[in-house]
Structures are given as structure tokens and as C-alpha cells.
Design a protein that fits this description.
homotetramer, about 290 residues, alpha/beta, Alpha-Beta Plaits, Rossmann fold, 2 domains, 7-stranded mixed sheet, 4-stranded antiparallel sheet, 8 helices, globular
Amino acid sequence: MEERPLSRSATLLIYCPDQKGVVAAVSSFLFQHEANILHADQHQDHDLKLFFMRVEWDLTDFNLSADEFRQHFTPLAERFEMDWSIAHAEHRPAMAVFVSQHLHCLVDLLFRYSIGDLNCYIPFIISNHATARELAEFYKIPFHYIPSPDGKEAAGKVAMERAQAELLAHHGVELIVLARYMQVLSPEFVRQYPQRIINVHHSFLPAFTGARPYHAAHQRGVKLIGATSHYVTEELDEGPIIEQDVARVSHRDQIPDLVRMGRDLECRVLSKAVQWHLESRILHYSGKTVVFD
Amino acid sequence: MEERPLSRSATLLIYCPDQKGVVAAVSSFLFQHEANILHADQHQDHDLKLFFMRVEWDLTDFNLSADEFRQHFTPLAERFEMDWSIAHAEHRPAMAVFVSQHLHCLVDLLFRYSIGDLNCYIPFIISNHATARELAEFYKIPFHYIPSPDGKEAAGKVAMERAQAELLAHHGVELIVLARYMQVLSPEFVRQYPQRIINVHHSFLPAFTGARPYHAAHQRGVKLIGATSHYVTEELDEGPIIEQDVARVSHRDQIPDLVRMGRDLECRVLSKAVQWHLESRILHYSGKTVVFD
Amino acid sequence: MEERPLSRSATLLIYCPDQKGVVAAVSSFLFQHEANILHADQHQDHDLKLFFMRVEWDLTDFNLSADEFRQHFTPLAERFEMDWSIAHAEHRPAMAVFVSQHLHCLVDLLFRYSIGDLNCYIPFIISNHATARELAEFYKIPFHYIPSPDGKEAAGKVAMERAQAELLAHHGVELIVLARYMQVLSPEFVRQYPQRIINVHHSFLPAFTGARPYHAAHQRGVKLIGATSHYVTEELDEGPIIEQDVARVSHRDQIPDLVRMGRDLECRVLSKAVQWHLESRILHYSGKTVVFD
Amino acid sequence: MEERPLSRSATLLIYCPDQKGVVAAVSSFLFQHEANILHADQHQDHDLKLFFMRVEWDLTDFNLSADEFRQHFTPLAERFEMDWSIAHAEHRPAMAVFVSQHLHCLVDLLFRYSIGDLNCYIPFIISNHATARELAEFYKIPFHYIPSPDGKEAAGKVAMERAQAELLAHHGVELIVLARYMQVLSPEFVRQYPQRIINVHHSFLPAFTGARPYHAAHQRGVKLIGATSHYVTEELDEGPIIEQDVARVSHRDQIPDLVRMGRDLECRVLSKAVQWHLESRILHYSGKTVVFD
């Protein structure tokens, strides 16, 4: 994560080999520089001998600028072989939303955005359909209609993704949210945004990967349907899971009922994932996530 | 289901092609014979054009004996091509419990049995280990230790199942509950008890079929773990699902935590399935169940 | 419920003293008139000796017009002392929404309305604030700003409710939804819409009635927060409960977190109550509801 | 909490005014003494300006004995005005169980105890009925039948509690679990075990305090029933809540159904509370609990 101007509060995420003294070193460093810690949480994976830490502090009395923090913290980070990032609450990262024709997740995200629940800036919405245009305009967010190519030829897909990538680059987008975007992203595209693309899949993964999961769930006769939000990786529906939820169904529920009930689940798991990502609560390793609460 | 002497209340389960007049015919029949209906529920599968009905009535004023019911109801049933069964609350079917070394589901079932929650009679418990013997004795239920054969040779397995089958036949067992019985039943055995064997699988099926589902769930990094009770069919973990439940887990939960939390889920989904089966609430078709509430 | 032109499907709700033969009489009546039953459900309250029934049928082959139905069904209804109503799916009742400054429930309802999930017609939105005007306009629904009177004097309140009542009467409103409308309705107003006003209260009733329930919940240190949708009666927060839901909270959650998490609960319990009411799934008696699924 | 011999792992619970440098001081202290931290968690109550911390470490390399820990840690604790306690995993505190006639919670706790889920030693079970005697004997735990006095005269009650208190004192009991013990403890008794008595109440507190909560819930027509585990204080049902859970009910569920479904909830919330207390996860303040996960 790039450095940002220091302000109000800052959150540090740390990931390193587990070893004695990490907490002492980090908390002493913060104390020396007058940080007033608001929340701190640690996690150890004893099997893999890894250490994870999230610490958020009030910047009011903190005596390091963003540049000074980097300068002073780097030796400590190197000593413990840390992978680290710092986020400042005042910085609102640019978040792009991709959507197709089903608008429930977009409606949900934009309302949360409008009341200040999501600490980000949405520079634009991209869609392969025009359906969301009016909604985007209502919220005064630029809307880019980039249709899917006819047929399946590679050239059209490449052009489509190039157009998307230009917009993303131009606005310095740090997070992409696929709010029921029904197109598979190419591995090349995904590689450019590692752990920066969040998708919602309308099943309880790993059950019912791929297309039409509600049909598959109905066919199997499950008693609970689910939804899953996850980071997108090159393998479809295999990325690190961020959040999952389920709803009870019965023999009375037909596929349209599952679709309707599933919409609520999808909104919930996607909005939580987005919020947690924006609050720097998520670390990922070995195909899994640590979500600090 | 075999006929039983009529008493206090009776429950009729019906399954037939969907057509006009079934409810009218059945309810008029019951009314003519002075049944006082306690609960009635219907279900239509519009895709498959099937009709399902469960009706429970007080036998106090009912003017048909069990034999007379069969005699008078059969023409009606034939007219609508019904698959039907009747159960009388006074008849407590024989239910055998199979268990291995993990006793939580057994402890749970036996306590419910002891306070009268399960409308059945448990003639014996079978196990391939001796672990459950004392518990069985505490509840004064005969315990049969039938060990698994050494190695995987077919002959031992055949002998083991023959010993089990003899006990089942001798006691007229109508329902077999696999309360964490860690042996795969042979197709020949399963075929003898169609929709009469209930198993609990420690995952949210169809995710994580097979062995060590908690390990697989931990490996995949899911945020909810589950358990599933289902009728056993010849294909492992593929039988009609009766009940499922989940519990939330986090990155803090290691495999022993999942195992511990899963125990509670397993008890819950298994005991509900057993109770519903014993209350004649379950119909099955096309690999799915209808569970009347 | 007033009679409506018969069409596609019809739903009959019945409430009467429990007695033998009701189901037989109703189902035979429907069969005689060529109804193709889609769903049927009954319930008995054995303590109070009451019978409840909901039956929905396809009107394609049904040989009675709305008027004829009333004419032919009335003798049967009188025989069993039924309180009954019939609703036709084609009739979309007028539903008014009242809202104040918190718009989450309104956003949720209007989106569901826009995609056809709610079988109703929304002639207008009333608010004592202007906050919702743009949202109403986006969905092309007339918006009436009827401010609360200054102070607490009775005259202003009376005038306010008179203005509301005129709008309701003019549009033949059959259901009023209080989507976080932060004004207490007068008993006179409520009496005009018995079981026709649905409210959402942001607690798990009967815990935390009255104002600021999230503050009270936080103060008490509960581990789950809740929301409740209910019919409005003259006694505040005492009406028949339609739906409730809860979310887990921890010591980390401060009041703003409870408010944020509660919003999702409120949307869920209110939208379900509205949908069920519009699908004629709810009967009420003795201060409780029967919700047919 | 009294000091215990240091062994395998230790858990420190801290509660003090919030101020800069607490985490740094504690983690540096532990690091200096070669502690290998297994889990650490902090919490701040910003309104009340309080700080809470739980830290668990492996004792393998730790270079302080229990006495030395106390000696060296005390100055630091005094500097930050800490209320603190340390628990060593090897020490299994004595936990007494009180029960009346409903045995489900006792069955549940004893099974968990038997498989090692509860880090405690149960020296005896006390009951005002003989119902649990056989169960206690099965688990080889001494059973003391101390009947309730006839009538309500104070003398009998005093004698009853004196008998209980002697047993508790004799065995050095540190935690009392009321596993559906249907007697109200006197304020004098409660005062002797501050935050050392855990009760389960069969409702979602603060709804339905007092006797017969399932009847009250049924009467009110709630759609979810609940159960609550809490520390016992002198005011009935007003102690700090530790855990709550709910189950969905419908109009079909009569009081015996609520009682049956409630049993599962009661087992769950009570066993979690007991486990968390024994794992030193709970701090309490202002009538609330902090439960570290």
C-alpha cells in the first residue's frame, strides 16, 4: 500500500515469521513516538509459524510524519522480516465497481457509500450493460458502459479489458469490487490487482462453484443456501474467502425464491468484505484470510 | 411402513402425481370417518408435477380400525396413484444406533430418548469399538461389540455386516442411526434399508465429502463450518439431505476448535433428523427430502 | 379485504373456531369449482380452539367469478363462522410508505419494489423531513413532505394526521409501512388501519421498547442485537410481532456499530413483513401472528 | 485469582485505566523474560477510558517462577493501576455444579468434562433433588443431596446454604455453575462468590426475566426464543451477560416445543460461558463482560 499523508488515525498491518519480541518491538516503537493505541490485535499461525498484527492508533500526539514513519520503522521491519503496510484514515482509496445487470449489490454498496459507511472514493462504475446507468447518475458517479465483445474471440476481450485498465490506471484505483459482474476476468488482468479485486459468488464455497449455483443447490436439495465474498485469483472461485453467510431454505422454496433470498446474502457478504478491506482488517496467506475484528 | 394398531393419533404421508381433488378426497374421507385433524400440510413440486401431503389426526372419535383404514383407503389411494404410509403414535418403532469412538451424538440421542423426546424404542447399540459400552449400560440398552475386520478383506466385512443384519432382523428394526459410525456400509446392506438409515456427515454437504472434512475446511479457509444429516444411499455422502446447520469460525480456530464446535452441530442436525423421521415428517423423492414442519 | 376481480391466482385466508370438516368443506368447494390448488396450509391453536387456513389456487380453470365466489362461499363461511378474505394476485394493493430521516429501509423497499418483489402499488411516500425526496423522485413515486408541528401541541399533530389521512383515503391505501418513521401515530389514526400498519422497531421486542434501543442494548451489555417488525396497535411497541432477527455483537462494538449492524436487521425484518402481508400469509389473533410459509 | 505453580502456559488478564504505553510495558516485560506469546488481545472502552488485555504465553522458555512473576510484575502493575490475575493452564480450578430436576445442562457439561473440553476439576454436584444422583455416579463425581426447606422460612434456607458453603470451602471451589438450579441464592451467598457463579436463564435477557419465560415468550408471540448465561449478582437476572443465543420458532410451536428447543440453547450458552471462564477469557466491568476470543 502506498504511503499517505498522516492524519487522525493510522492502521498498521504486519505479517512476518513468528518470533519472540515482535509485539514488544512494535508497541515500544509506537509508545516512543507518542501513539495512542486505539485497537490492537495479533494472530499466530502455529503450524506455519507466522505472525500477524493489526494496530490502529490516534495520530493526535504521534510525532512522526508519514515519511519519518517509513524511515524509522523500516529498520525494525527488516529485523523481523516484516511484510507491512500502513493506511491513514484520512486517505480514502479509489474503489471501482464493476456490475452487470443484477443491481442489488450495487444498490446496497452505493447507499452505504452515500451515508459514509465505506471509507473510499468511487471514481466510476463500469458495466457491460447499460442497466446501472441511472443509478450511477443518481449517486453522481461516472458510469462507463464497456460492452462485452460479440462472440468469444480473444481480441474483443483484450480490447474490453484494455479499456477497463486505462480507466483504473487513470484514477489510481486501489480496489476493484465485482458487484455481480458476470464476466470472467483474464489471468493477465487479475495479476495486475493481487488481493485488490473482491468478488461475490452466490454459493457457499467450495460447494457449487461455477455458473448457476442456485440451480445446483436446488437440484441437490440443500437446506441452507449461501454466499461467499473472496479475493479474485487466477483460478475461478478459488481465491481467499473473506466472508460467508447462509440462509435456511425448505422444500417450498423454488429457484426464484433461492435467487431472491440469495440477493440479501450476497449484499451482506460483499459489503462486509469491502468494508473490512477498506478498514485494513484483512491479511491473506496460503490462500486464506485473517480478518481482524 | 407396516400397519400398526390404531391409537391416540395417526399420521398419514402421501406422495402422488399432482392433480385436482386430492386434498378434497383425503380430507372428506377423514371427515366422513370422524377424524379430528390436528395438523395438515401439503406441498406441490410444480416442475415434477408431484403432490405431497402429511396429515395427523386425533383417533378419539375416528371410526376405523387399522385394518378397516387400509381396506377403505386403498381404493382412494389407487385412484390417485398414491404412495402412502400411516404411522400411529402409540407404535414406537425399533431404532438401532451404530457408533464408533466419538460418543457425543450418542450421548445426545440417549438423553433425548431418556426424557421421551424420541418416539421410538432402542433395542440395542452396535459398535466396532468398546468405548460406548458403559454409556449403553447406564441407559440400560444392550450393547453389541462387533469389531471391524483386520485389514480390508471382503470376507471380514461380510461377516461383520451379517452379524449386524441378524440383530436388526431379530428386533424388527425400522430405523438405523449412524451416530458417528466410521465405517462405510456395503451397497448390499444399504439396499436392505432404503430411506431407513440416517447418517451425520461433519461438513456442509456437498462441500467436503469424504474423510477429514474439518481438515479440508480449515485448509480452504472457510468462514463457516457445517454438518449434514442425510439418508444413506449407495453413493457415499450423496443421499437425500434432511438437515444442515453451520457455525461461524475465524482465523483463530484451529482444527481441534473446528472439531469441538462441529460436535455441537453434528448433535443438532442428527437429533433433528431422527426426531423428524420418527414423527413421520419426511418424504423423499429425486434425491431430496420434503420435511413437513 | 375488499373483493377484487378474479385472475391468475387467488389466495383465501380463513380464521374460525376449530371443528371437524373445515378442510374437507373448503377443499371440496374448491375442487367442485375446478380450482387447481398451488399451496395450502392449516394451523390449529389447540388451547384457544381456533382454526387457520391459507389456500392459494390457480384460476385458469376456476369457474367462479369474484362475485360468484362471494355468493357461493358465503353460506359455507357462515356455517363454520369463518372470518375470511380473498386476495387476487393481479390486484396490486396500494401501499403507502412513511419515513423520516434514516433512509435505509426505504432504499431497501424501493429496490425490491422496482424489481417486482413486492406485489403492490406505491402511490406516494410521506415524510416529516425532506431527506427522502430525491430518492422518491428517482423511483418516480410522488413525495409528500408533511412536517411535524413545532412543539408538542395537539392541534398541529391533528392537522398533520388529517393531511396524511386525506392522501391515504384518496389513493385507497390498504397498507401503511412505517420505514423508520420516527413519529408516534395517534390512537385515532391507528384505529382506522387495524392490522394495516407495519412498523419496524430496532430491538428484539419485548426487550428495549421505546426510544434509543441500541443505547439501552449497549448499556445492558447484550451479546445479540435485534430488530422486530410488527403491526401497529394503540399501545406502542406492543402490536403483534411479524418477524424478528438478531445479529451477534461483541464488547468491541460501540453504539455506532450497533446502529450500523442494526440497519441491516431492520431492512430484513421489515421487508419480510411487507412481503408476507402482500402475499396474504399473515393472520393475527390474541396479539400474535400466524405466518404461513 | 490465587497464584499457582507456573507450567506449560499462562494467561494474564489485565484491567486498568487506559493510558499510553501499557501494551509496550507488558509486552516488553514478557519479552525480557523470554515469554513466547501464543495469543494476545486488547480492548479499550473509549467512553469509560478503560483498558483490557489478555495475553497467553508458552512457559517453556519463560524465566520467572510464579513467585518471581508476582514480585517482578507488581511494580509495573502498580504503575498502571492494574487489576490483574494470572492463570496457569496446569492448574485445574475446582468447579461445583448445582442442579435441580432438569438434567440437560448437566448431561452436556459432564460429557464435555469427560472428554477434556473443560479445564477444571469437579469435586462434587449439589442438588435439591435426587434426580441427578445416578448421572453423577456414572461420571464418578460425588453427589450431595441438600433438599430445599419445606415452606419458605428463612431458617431452612440459611441452613441449606450453610451446608453448601461448607462443601464449597472444603474443596476450595473457585467457580459455581448453576446448571438449571431452580433456587434463588441469597445475597449473602452471592456476595461470597463475586463473578464466580454462572447461571443460565431460559430467555433472551433482558426480555422475560423471572419465572416461566417460555410461557411469557409464547404469550407475547415472539418469533425467536433465547437463552442467556450470565454471572450471578444480587439482583436476579441482572448480572453481566456472558453469552446469548436464539432459535427461530413459529406459530406451530407450542410451549412444550419451546421448552424442548430451549434446552439446546441453554446447553450451548452455558457450556460456552463455563469454557470461556475456565480459559480466563472474561473480564467484567460496569455490569458487562469483555469476552476475548
